[in-house]
Amino acid sequence: MALPGDLDALCPTELKALVVQLLGKVAALEQTVAAQRAEIVRLKGLKGRPQLKPSGMEKASEPKPPNPLKGRRGPVTPRVAVEDQVIEAAAPPGSRFKGYADFLVQDLVLRARCIRYRRERWLTPDGHLVVAPLPGGVNGHFGPELRRFALTQYHQGQVTLPRLVAQLQAVGLAISKRQVMRLLIGNQQRFLAEARDVLRAGLAQAPWITVDDTGARHKAANGTCTQIGNDHFAWFGTTASKSRLNFLELLRGGHPDYLINAEALAYMRKRALSGPVIERLASQPERHFSDRAAWQTHLERLGIAALTITPDPVRIATEGALWGAIKAHGFLPETVIVSDDAGQFAIGLHGLCWVHAERLVHKLDTFTDHQRTAHQRIRALIWWFYADLKAYRREPSRHRRTELRARFDRLFQRRTGFVVLDRLLARLHANKPDLLRVLDRPEIPLHTNGSENDIRAQVTRRKISGGTRSDTGRDCRNAFLGLMKTCQKLGVSFWDYLGTRLTIPDQLAIPYLPDLVRTRCSPA
Known about the structure:
This protein has helices at residues 12-44, 57-60, 144-156, 161-171, 177-185, 189-205, 244-251, 262-270, 275-282, 292-301, 313-328, 354-362, 369-394, 398-412, 419-430, 432-435, 437-440, 449-465, 471-490, 494-501, 513-521, and strands at 121-123, 129-131, 208-218, 221-229, 234-239, 258-259, 288-289, 336-339, 349-352. By secondary structure, the chain is an alpha/beta fold. The strands form 3 sheets. It has a 5-stranded mixed beta sheet, sandwiched between helices. Strands 1-2 form a two-stranded antiparallel sheet. A hairpin with a 4-residue loop joins β4 and β5. The longest helix is centred in the N-terminal third of the chain and has 33 residues, at 12-44. The mean pLDDT is 90.
């Protein structure tokens, strides 16, 4: 737009028209600049965290259940004894009694109670003082019912410590924050031992386990909480690292030893440890080491700790010794470890989660019609293949197994012309043995949804309560979370479980959880 040479010569009407024209031009330029900025942000990848919805593959591949018949809900069956209370009616004289009209009401009685045990003291003829013992379950100045309530509210109810203290004080208890903390983490060795034995029972008996991890804070430092479990048990462990070495240490089930045996040497060969280093370890008469210090001393004595070669001989040798100890304790005999393709979990017999594999395809960005068409077609084929894998799990056969292997190759070796998608398909095809582990072991799951569901409780606790400050607090949080999840999977009330372990009178007896896990995990 050409401007007039002399603006002073323009009349008011012409000046007004010129201003309107310039304002329109400025508005058009602003729109152009905004569009260019948006394009620059898109090209640089500065879109922020993508809002991705679940793909829906797992739900879509499930057979649709029949619609339930609509009607009234069934009768209420309380888990406690029903107390009868007769209410008399004001009937006129001459009326005939026609029985009772029952009306069931469930209620909760929550009140503070303070008992002073007046224990008799007797002085025997020989000068000894005899004092009557406290009733069973009384340990300290707070009773077992209070301990059960605090543990249930904190671990199952996800109540924060300040709110739990305020709740107890509001009921009428004279209790402080420090005292509540002692109820939660003090003298809990039996629960810690039972949680450890649950892990050992699962590792020894389970035909498969799923694993997952998430961030955790401990002593004001970032760490990792790892979940191990299946349909019958769950266990959690918080450590400072998420390496394969860390995962192997957790799989020892609390045992501190290292062992050089056939399984350990086979692991080292598979991880490409130098042959002379393996020979040096295998030729030594000393094979068992009680703890990390003894093992590290052995590596230094053999000169392995001073080697600077690739891969790191100390790391691979230590991983192998841990794997040897795991096998020596009878853990993971033929157990399949199903994971989300995180490298630290690729140990032993390994299977991959199909939901995470499909998620890689689901997250791809498409820019052209050709890319969108190829993307949608590949996703549809993967969903179809996944549904057939689930059908195979229900009715496995040799013919279907061969057909699915060939079909996997056709699906993930195809070329669509969408370069990024083709590279991703090639990557998934390289994981064929782990993705198709289910063909040889139809009992294993096709996903790690169970682990993700279990570890969500740890994420919730981390969000509402932050991290842990002491090793005891960390261990108690992990142990009670694992025991609570195990109770849910075994169909056991966590409330009744705590009542049994705290020796509360007239409490339903709950068996030792590791025994239940062994029974459920053992093949029929």
